[in-house]
Amino acid sequence: MLVDAFLSVLPALLPGNLDPAPEPEDVKAGWTAFGIFLGGVATVALLGWSLVRQLRQVEDARQRGVYGEPEEQEQEQADAADAPAADSTEDTPRA
């Protein structure tokens, strides 16, 4: 059954039965395709601008400490707790 379907399509695939290619002077690019191309360029540019804007907002939020790696925050808190305050050295009595 599959062979019969293939054999029925085979004559249409022979080189003599294929549609000839159009001549170069018969084919031209249209303004519609150019407009679609420009629309695609504008879309990619808009998406790139939006991506850069979002990445800047993320970096700003990261620097403000809105979110980050929990290990990094815990390490910063531990370092701050272990470090003696600069003013506390003046209050200690000298021997």
Describe this entry's structure for a reader:
The protein has 95 residues and is mainly α. It has a domain at 35-61. The chain is 66% helix and 0% strand. It has four helices and no strands. It has helices at residues 2-13, 31-64, 70-82, 88-91. The radius of gyration is 35 Å and the shape is elongated. The chain starts with a helix and ends with a helix. The chain crosses the membrane at residues 30-52. Keywords: Membrane, Transmembrane, Transmembrane helix. Residues 63-95 are annotated as: Disordered. Residues 69-79 have a biased composition (Acidic residues).
Q: What would you say about this model in short?
A:
With 95 residues, the protein is mostly helical. It has helices at residues 2-13, 31-64, 70-82, 88-91.
Would you spell out the secondary-structure blueprint of this structure?
Blueprint lengths: L1 H12 L17 H34 L5 H13 L5 H4 L4
Keywords: Membrane, Transmembrane, Transmembrane helix
